[in-house]
Amino acid sequence: MVSFGVMLGHGMVNAGILQNEDFSSGLEGWDSQGAVFEGIEEVALTDENVKQSFLYQGVTLDPGTYEVAISFRQILSPAEPLGFAKDTFFASIYLSNTPEQFDPQAPDGFEGILELFNFDSAGPFAFSGEFIPDPVRPDYLSYRQTLSLTEPSTLFTVFELTDLNGINDNSLVLVDSVVVVIPEPLAAVPFGLAVLAFLLIRRKVR
Fold first, then answer.
1. What pLDDT is stored for residue 73 in this prediction?
2. Number of helices (H), then strands (E), in the chain
3. Parallel/antiparallel/unpaired status of strands 172-180 and 123-125
4. What is the pTM of this model?
């Protein structure tokens, strides 16, 4: 079982290890499902004629500490008709032992999941990291979280926009950059890091 630790911090994140982390080359290096569109150095997830849209990229990592930084802007509908919920944006990390078969929608398409945050029009909920104003684009948010890996793992950073209010094409999320920093030695993991291994063995159920 893979173990994660989580640490909060305001440290700046620079060059990372994901391909095309700032979307300057459109969707190159990324996979998507649903209504996902290229913008100008950003990618848009929408609920246009779909119930779910996904954007994801996998990478195999050695043991160590990694900082994840996500810059995004949400334009999510506040509509919540009776019997429905608000449209929601999810950011998660999936574990896959068979990355060539990875599918965030398939029950057997991954082995575990660590939810980073959920976000609707009212703001974030169920998050384990930290939100700060984006230092470059003031209308964007930056989410930061530091993870600790105890063994080599193939992880997928996954973004999902789900239409929960039953209204077509009324929500949008712009993802500006996703950075995963090259790890420090495992011995450098700070004292007191909280271990969240139990989250990784749960499957996402909504």
1. 97
2. 1, 14
3. unpaired
4. 0.84
